[in-house]
Structures are given as C-alpha cells and as structure tokens.
What we know:
Blueprint: E1 5-10, H1 24-42, E2 52-62, E3 71-78, E4 85-94, E5 97-109
Antiparallel strand pairs: 1-3, 2-5, 3-4, 4-5
Amino acid sequence: MKLVHIKEIVVSDEHLDQNNHVNNVQYVHWVEEMAKEHWDILKNSTPYSDDFWVLSDHHIQYKKQVFKGEILTLKTYPEKPEGIRQPRKVEFYRGEELVVDSRTLWILMDSQNLKIRRVPEDWLEKI
C-alpha cells in the first residue's frame, strides 16, 4: 500500500545519548525524516507535488528503551485529515514490539504564495 512507508534502522553510536540508549531527540529527527521521505514518494501522485508540509503539533510516547545494535522498523502513514491539519503516525518497532509511538499534525503550504492549502477530506483515497 502506497500510504504506508516502512524502513529499518540499525541503531549506532551516533543515535545514543549519555545513557547509551537512543536519544529522544533522535526519535523526533526520525519522525520528521520519515514524513519527508514518504511525501517524496507520494507527492507526484497528488495535485500538490510542488507544495510542502510544516509541522504544527507533535506527540511522542516512549514505551521502551532501545540500544546500540538493535534493529528498529519504522512505519509511517497518514490518517484522515482534521480540517487544515493532516495527522501522521510514525511507529517504531523492535521486532513485533512497539517501542515508540508518534502522532504529528502537519499543514500543507502552497509553495507559490506560502499560504495554507486546505486539502479535501478524501484526498488520500485518490492516491
């Protein structure tokens, strides 16, 4: 399904904090990276290929610590729009176990006039 984007990351030294587990800020970076990667995959299937998303709200829940050498599977997908906001989930799994859960709200910006672009409620169904 095109509306789901998945990738794996092997945790390395650069991802760790002073406690030798994945730094919370690293998860935030991965959330943003996953959203951008997924949009790059999808945008040419939409009428909004020149437009860009800005983050308006971010919620993240850390359930388990993750350490060097472990493999994380990152899974992202958009949810049904909420007015001008487009929710997106990013889930982090170690094997089958959900270790971090994120939900962000994004706003689409018109690249020509830099104003908010409202997308139709059913726009995801057309991708």
